[in-house]
Specification:
single chain, 5-stranded antiparallel β-sheet, 165 residues, OB fold (Dihydrolipoamide Acetyltransferase, E2P)
């Protein structure tokens, strides 16, 4: 899966593409350089929407909303997004050759703030943030006016606060 792609054209050289590619099998990120003459093998990938159900010792259980198939996702594939897992929320499961390769959360999600320290009076300059712990255990930086119990929207790609829900 391509994580980042940068096209470069040096003044006295041929153009190339610098890519950060995540291996679907191992999760390891490789930094590769491609020239116009290089070829890449394309792996067939399918994407399907599943609802997250629960976690146990065998892994994370996702349920297909139409066929009710239960799919168990290994723990190592969910480590990066564990803080975004909410029961009954839809996620996209990516399959290669009939096996699970990755889990993608929606681009934005809503969470309830579980813990957030009070903002100090006098800390009111623009763009001042404080840490907040969400219902899933995920920590994000939020503005000073956010209090425990409030619902907020978070960007799942970079973990940044987007606004109140």
């Amino acid at each position: 899966m391509v994580e980042e792609l940068i096209h470069k054209t040096p003044p006295n050289n041929r153009a190339y593409v610098q890519a950060s590619v995540r291996s679907l099998a191992t999760g390891k990120v490789n930094h590769l350089r491609f020239t116009p003459n290089d070829s890449v093998e394309v792996v067939p990938v399918t994407r399907e929407d599943y609802e997250y159900s629960y976690a146990d010792q065998s892994g994370y259980h996702f349920l297909h909303s139409e066929t009710y198939d239960d799919v168990i996702v290994p723990r190592h594939l969910v480590e990066d997004i564990k803080g975004y897992l909410v029961e009954n929320q839809k996620y996209t499961l990516i399959f290669t050759n009939e096996s699970i390769a990755a889990v993608e959360p929606p681009p934005t999600m809503e969470f309830t703030v579980a813990e957030s320290p009070e903002g100090l009076k006098g800390d009111s300059s623009t763009n001042v943030y404080k840490p907040a712990k969400l219902e899933t255990g995920l920590e994000v930086q939020v503005p000073l006016f956010i209090k425990a119990g409030e619902r907020i929207r978070v960007n799942t790609e970079d973990g940044k606060y987007l606004g109140r829900a």
